[in-house]
Amino acid sequence: MISAGGERGLIMVIEDEAAIAGVMRLNLVKAGYGVHIEREGAAGLAAIRALKPAAVILDIGLPGLDGIEVCRRLRAMNDWTPVLFVTARDDEVDRIVGLELGADDYVTKPFSPRELVARVTSVLRRSQGSPDDVTSLVVGAVRLDPAERRAYCAGSEVELTATEFDLLGYLMRRPGRVFSREQLISEVWGYSAAGGVRTVDVHIAQVRAKLGSASPIRTVRGVGYAVDSTAPRGVGPAAGPR
Ligand code: CA
Hints:
The protein is α/β, with parallel strands linked by helices. It has helices at about 20-30, 40-50, 65-75, 90-100, 115-130, 160-170, 180-190, 200-210; strands spanning about 10-15, 35-40, 55-60, 85, 105-110, 135-140, 140-145, 150-155, 155-160, 180, 215-220, 225, 235. It folds into two domains: about 10-130, Rossmann fold (3-Layer(aba) Sandwich); about 135-225, Orthogonal Bundle (Arc Repressor Mutant, subunit A), CATH 1.10.10.10. The chain contains eight helices and 13 strands. Strands 2-1-3-4-5 form a five-stranded parallel sheet, sandwiched between helices. It has a five-stranded antiparallel sheet with strand order 9-8-7-6-13, covered by helices on one side. Strand 6 (about 135-140) and strand 7 form a beta hairpin. The termini are far apart. The relative contact order is 0.12. Bound molecules: calcium ion (CA). Calcium ion (CA) binds near residues 16, 17, 59 and 61.
């Protein structure tokens, strides 16, 4: 079922609990989004392919195909629609991290409707990028092309989610500076840090898994993260893969 309106884009909600899905729809519609609800994983996956939503809100605990499997299959089809996971338990967060699913963010039940809408808006803003970025960023073997939102490692293209791209780009633009998780949440995600700082660790882990030993991100124990200023660095015009 698709709600009327939706000038800000279509959001796909895949959630088997009707009451929760209803609250999500109410608040997303109020914020100007169109909403399509599916209650089961396989049907949700088919609906994403058919309707091409701007973003997906994906419950992990679904009957049949669970949310993690839905996301895995979506990414396997090279579909990088932004995914916001809804988790009921902390160990589900560990699974999102460990499986490197290309999640863009997650919220933990119970969540406030306002928080959910803020996260959706933030995920969409990040996935749409900034038109002001025209130069590429290089640190060591890693190069980001912000204009085309492409990432390269040792000359080969690496698939980063919108959030991973923005997080890495934020740090690469400011080499040598150390940022706390709270600062990164505020600057990259665009909302206040209340309870969401673990999101940063999730995405740092995903970026590192994709870049391997070329990852320029350094953990500063007890503080946060930085991109090393000692790594070879240069800024030049955007260019294609070599
Ligand atoms: Ca559920």
